[in-house]
Design goal:
alpha+beta, 6-stranded mixed sheet, 9 helices, 10 strands, 14% strand
């Protein structure tokens, strides 16, 4: 199967579509040890596509490239050998993929969006438009937008004529401000002399900012990332009285920006409190 995937990737690159390998589960290969947690500094903000300075396909969508020498290099050949599929970076080819995940989403698109090139998927369809935009998940039920800083699985050229990205698609990412109503947190009084060891503005601000960044940079397993981030914040600040509604609202807002619903945020927060034995206070 390796020659087929490699051949497909080289063909896509020749047509201006930056490919990358996907492992089982339709997710990119993890970073190599040298690049784990962006320790290499090569793609800390994931704003620029292309290979990392190391020779492996690191940094998820940002590994996508049209350079045939990279795609067929020994390190990438090793990845293709273990790969399950080929993906591509739509924004890198000035494209936007409207990912319709079910029949209801397809019916909505047929009513609301202009026709364009269509590719069947396992559960729905990809509608592909000419033009790049910001990628956003869950812009409406069963609909994701994949363009810049995202990847889409290659499922064939599709059918139909590629049309310009319409305002109707761009408008999907324009949302009314969300009023976040996080679960109220009641914590026990500090022990000892009653002084909270964490109640310094710099320490708390840094912790909340790092938690927001961790959620924002999640590119897979978003549900799990949100839960573990909430758990980490509560384990540090949940018993000492540092957290305020404003801090929690920031975490909920970051999670919702990644596509999490308010209910999922509340559930993750409640589960984290239960795990730490805070549910009874």
């Amino acid at each position: 199967m390796t020659p087929t995937l490699l051949h497909t990737a080289l063909q896509l690159a020749s047509e201006g579509l930056p490919p990358l390998p996907l492992r089982k589960g339709k997710v990119p290969f993890g970073n190599c040890p040298a690049c784990a947690s962006n320790a290499c500094g090569g793609r800390p903000n994931m704003k620029t596509p292309g290979p990392c300075t190391c020779p492996q396909p690191c940094h998820g969508w940002a590994a996508a490239t049209t350079d045939p020498a990279v795609i067929s290099s020994p390190m990438w050949r090793r990845a293709w050998r273990d790969a399950a599929a080929v993906a591509y970076h739509p924004g890198g080819a000035d494209l936007t993929v409207v990912d319709l995940d079910n029949a209801d989403a397809i019916a909505w698109a047929s009513r609301a969006l202009p026709s364009t090139r269509t590719v069947p998927t396992t559960r729905g369809e990809h509608w592909i438009y000419q033009g790049a935009m910001t990628s956003v998940n869950a812009v409406r039920p069963g609909v994701d937008i994949k363009s810049t800083m995202a990847y889409a699985r290659w499922l064939g050229p599709g059918t139909g004529t590629l049309t310009e990205l319409p305002d109707a698609v761009r408008a999907l990412t324009t949302k009314q401000p969300v009023t976040v109503r996080p679960t109220a947190v009641t914590v026990p009084s500090p022990v000892g002399d009653g002084t909270c060891p964490h109640r310094t503005p710099a320490y708390l601000a840094r912790g909340i900012a790092m938690a927001e960044q961790r959620i924002t940079q999640a590119r897979e397993a978003v549900h799990n990332t949100v839960y573990r981030t909430f758990l980490a914040v509560l384990s540090t600040h949940g018993r000492c009285g540092c957290l305020t509604d404003s801090h929690i609202a920031r975490l909920f807002a970051a999670a919702q920006a990644k596509g999490e619903s308010p209910r999922h945020c509340t559930d993750a927060w409640t589960n984290a409190r239960t795990r730490l034995g805070l549910s009874h206070v």
